[in-house]
Specification:
There is one protein chain. The chain folds into two domains: about 90 residues, no CATH class; about 70 residues, no CATH class. The chain is built from three helices and eight strands. The strands form three sheets. It has a three-stranded mixed sheet, with no helix packed on it. A three-stranded antiparallel sheet has the order 5-6-7, with no helix packed on it. The protein has a two-stranded antiparallel ribbon with strand order 1-2. Helix 1 runs antiparallel to helix 2, helix 1 runs parallel beside helix 3 and helix 2 packs across helix 3. The chain starts with 6 loop residues before the first strand and ends with a strand.
């Protein structure tokens, strides 16, 4: 086990996922995000540590991720990575000054529904609800507040 060689850093991976989403690598976003959320199930309180061992995953031998001995948990950047991962899954970007919201959601197969409550854009407060549609494997969304004065932009896929 090495601190810098082969370990998994949730913070770094969340930044990678955000970049992949920006450039349209939707499958890769889903895969990395899913693996990080799967790994979180093996840590206390489902809390991602600062880093963990990146060993080969063997489901038959029931191998699990190992916390690196020098890893901090809780750790602020690891905790914050969850929010960037969710934001990337939802393709959610807000330009509050322009009163504009960008959405290109894609929920993974393990997450059928997601909601964002009380999202402030200027003086407006929005509630967003996302549903994964099967078998189409796309994600639909609803905005449950009045969006008058807020532009919703859905980039082409």
């Amino acid at each position: 086990m090495s601190y810098r060689n082969g370990s998994v850093w949730p913070h770094d991976n969340s930044l990678i996922v955000a970049g992949m989403k920006r450039y349209g690598y939707h499958w890769e976003v889903e895969e990395i995000t899913s693996q990080l959320f799967d790994a979180s199930a093996f840590f206390n309180y489902n809390r991602l540590p600062e880093l963990f061992g990146g060993f080969y995953r063997d489901r038959e031998a029931y191998s699990i991720p190992a916390v690196h001995p020098a890893s901090c948990s809780p750790q602020a950047s690891a905790a914050g990575s969850v929010f960037l991962l969710v934001q990337s899954m939802l393709g959610l970007q807000v330009d509050a000054a322009a009163r504009r919201i960008y959405l290109s959601p894609r929920l993974p197969d393990w997450l059928q529904h997601a909601s964002v409550q009380n999202l402030r854009i200027g003086e407006k407060t929005l509630n967003l609800h996302f549903d994964r549609r099967i078998p189409e494997e796309d994600t639909r969304f609803q905005i449950s507040q009045n969006v008058a004065g807020v532009e919703v932009v859905i980039p082409p896929r």
